[in-house]
Amino acid sequence: MTTDLSNAQEWRGCTVMDRSGDKIGKLDEIYLDQQTGRPEWALVNTGMFGARSTFVPLSGASQASDNVIVEWDKARVKDAPNIDADGQLSQEEEAQLYRHYGLDYSQGGDAGTGDYDGDTGRDLGQDTSGPNTDDAMTRSEEELHVGKTEQQRGRVRLKKYVVTEQVQQTVPVQKEVARVEREPISEGNVDQALDGPAISDEEHEMVLSEEQPVVEKRAVPKERVRLDKDVVTDERQVSEEVRKEQIDADGDVER
Question: How many domains is the chain built from?
Answer without folding.
Answer: 1
